[in-house]
Write a structure and sequence with these properties.
The chain has about 525 residues and is of the alpha/beta class. The protein is about 35% helix and about 20% strand. It is built from 16 helices and 18 strands. The chain has helices at about 45-60, 80-90, 100-105, 120-135, 155-165, 190-200, 220-230, 260-270, 275-285, 295-305, 315-320, 395-400, 445, 455-465, 475-490, 515-520, and strands at about 10, 35-40, 70-75, 110-115, 145, 175-180, 210, 240-250, 320-330, 330-335, 350-360, 370-375, 380-390, 410-415, 420-425, 435-440, 470, 500-505. The strands form two sheets. Strands 1, 8, 9, 10, 11, 12, 13, 14, 15, 16 and 18 form an eleven-stranded mixed beta sheet that branches. Strands 4-3-2-5-6-7-17 form a seven-stranded mixed beta sheet, sandwiched between helices. The chain is globular. The structure holds NADPH dihydro-nicotinamide-adenine-dinucleotide phosphate (NDP). NADPH dihydro-nicotinamide-adenine-dinucleotide phosphate binds next to α1.
């Protein structure tokens, strides 16, 4: 192979606004926002401080919250309103674009209320408190209940909210009422069905918002725009031209403080039941008739249904599981999974998985989808790779050999939100040399103005009542139907330990996955 081919050069796409269609800065809101009160249950926790309140403050700074709008943090911890606001102020200090007085103004609508998750009385009192706040601030009796608590509490809290009369729309002084649940939605098909049954005791499907914040990332949303607002890619978006698809969500972080949750979930429930499947669906779905939540979600369901059931007899060909051991991340020694606080010293929970999936339909038959996710890997990176087939015949073979590197389209989600396309060009000079070049478009270079953080986008959509980025129950069930037999095989087979391949922290996963990993990285 001619070594000059390995040289990769980057060309940046020059982004010019060539039409009058709005760009990012003008794209935040398309319709008026209805006043409401957001009630965060579990507000003393990590998600609230790290994601939710910063996202809401960001929306406030972009003038993208309704007015009036209240935020009521609730949990069992004894906090005064001032304590809560102080804690949240600290959590928002890093947000750029703040002027003196902005926080003060935002915090005027930030409240805290202690609740007891076991006590119906506590929720009746919460209802009285919310109604009084609603009368004072005139938020239309519209409620969004965000359950930022461990998933085991969803059924109980949903019932408490319902029994306190806060889920019924258009009655008892209520306007609309919505409930937001975080992944995981159940731990298998049966528990997902049971959770759904309980949620539906008090809420209708249109009131339920099952969050997958991956879907709110700009590049992820852009996959549909890229595919269906450009005529040149769709004709080649199929088994005739695409060799394989790779989807990777690699983290450098370990299990952190979430040992209790992770020991139950492992990487398959944590990443594959939800985020990875959604990314796969966006790449694979057929064009919906219109860009409406249910039309798009209908097409995703068809992809889930077409996924070839996992062949237990070919376990090692279809799936590699791993668990991180000690190693080095950025030059610093880090512990192995089994030495992390709260993790069983003989834990068999996988922290890495690589899965090969086939979508058995006209478009994708025979095209492998490689899905990889893991903790404590060499770098944090999230991207989707569309690998095209090689040219059918190399007319340069007498000078360059037979092999010419095939085109690759990449949707980068992290560290850069970008789209890149690689192709071959001739290097300048008398010799015939090919060079792989990359044409790239990054959001940072491409657009000025505010780009919303994923949680800001999902919160905004929830306020707007737009379900586009949220899971529908039939999707959850399809996803579990695919994954449950895999989990059963992984968790009940006699040689569970042998199937769990160790890898050093800071590496790219188990040796066994190396061959597939090279296809994606
Ligand atoms: P936490 O573990 O921080 O819990 C949130 C709050 O719930 C706690 O502050 C505590 O409040 C209450 N709580 C915790 N454990 C129990 C328990 N056993 N019984 C009763 N109450 C309890 O969770 P996070 O904030 O990290 O996450 C909230 C939800 O969001 C979870 O479902 C999680 O899976 C999901 N999620 C979280 C992400 C993150 O980055 N943190 C990312 C994606 C999803 P108090 O005791 O004051 O009532």
């Amino acid at each position: 192979m001619n070594e000059t081919r390995l040289e990769t050069k980057k060309f940046s796409a020059v982004v010019e606004e060539v039409s009058s269609q709005p760009t990012a800065g003008k794209c935040l809101i398309t319709e008026p926002l209805t006043s409401c009160t957001l009630i965060i249950v579990g507000a003393s926790g990590d998600l609230t401080a790290r994601k939710l309140i910063p996202a809401l403050f960001e929306l406030f700074l972009n003038n993208s919250l309704p007015n009036p709008f209240n935020i009521v943090g609730c949990s069992r911890t004894d906090l005064s309103g001032d304590d809560f606001r102080k804690k949240m102020k600290y959590a928002c200090e890093h947000i750029p674009g703040q002027s003196p007085g902005d926080w003060q103004k935002f915090a005027e609508n930030l409240y805290y209320r202690k609740v007891d998750y076991e006590s119906p009385r506590s929720f009746s009192e919460l209802a009285i408190y919310l109604r009084a706040l609603n009368s004072e601030k005139n938020t239309g009796g519209n409620w969004i209940f965000y359950l930022a608590v461990p998933p085991s509490l969803y059924p109980k809290l949903s019932r408490m909210i319902g029994q306190a009369g806060l889920s019924r729309e258009g009655r008892e002084g209520n306007g609309w009422s919505r409930i937001v649940v975080e992944k995981p939605f159940g731990s298998d098909l049966d528990s997902a069905l049971e959770l759904d049954r309980i949620l539906h005791t008090d809420f209708h499907e249109h009131q339920i918002f099952r969050i997958d914040h991956y879907l709110a990332k700009e590049t992820v949303q852009n996959i549909l725009m890229f595919r269906f607002a450009n005529a040149i890619f769709e004709p080649i978006w199929n088994r005739s031209f695409i060799d394989y698809i790779g989807i990777i969500a690699a983290e450098q972080l370990g299990v952190e403080h979430r040992a209790g949750y992770y020991e139950q979930a492992g990487v398959l429930r944590d990443m594959f039941q939800n985020h990875m499947k959604q990314l796969l669906a966006l790449i694979a779905l057929e064009p919906p008739a219109s860009f409406e939540a249910d039309r798009v979600r209908d097409e995703k369901i068809k992809v889930f249904r077409a996924m070839k059931p996992f062949d237990v007899g070919k376990f090692d060909e279809e799936l590699v599981l791993g668990q991180y051991g000690p190693g080095k991340i950025d030059g610093h020694h880090v512990s192995g999974y089994r030495e992390e606080p709260g993790i069983a010293p003989d834990s068999l929970v996988p922290t890495f998985a690589m899965m090969r999936i086939f979508v058995d339909n006209w478009r994708w038959k025979g095209v492998p989808f490689y899905l990889v996710s893991g903790k404590r890997l060499a770098r944090k990176v999230t991207k989707l790779v569309v690998q095209f087939k090689e040219v059918p015949h190399s007319l340069f073979q007498n000078v360059l050999g037979k092999h010419i590197i095939a085109n690759r389209l990449t949707f980068g989600v992290y560290p850069e939100e970008e789209i890149t396309l690689t192709f071959q060009t001739k290097s300048p000079g008398a010799r015939v040399c090919l060079r792989t070049v990359t044409m790239d478009f990054t959001y940072k270079q491409g657009f000025e103005g505010p780009a919303l953080e994923a949680y800001a986008k999902v919160l905004l959509d929830c306020i707007l009542g737009d379900h586009m980025l949220f899971w529908r129950q039939d999707g959850v069930e399809q996803s579990w139907s695919f994954l449950s037999p895999i989990l059963e095989e992984c968790e009940t087979c006699g040689n569970r330990g042998e199937r769990l391949h160790p890898y050093a922290s800071g590496s790219w996963g188990p040796k066994r996955a190396e061959k597939w990993m090279q296809l994606i990285l």
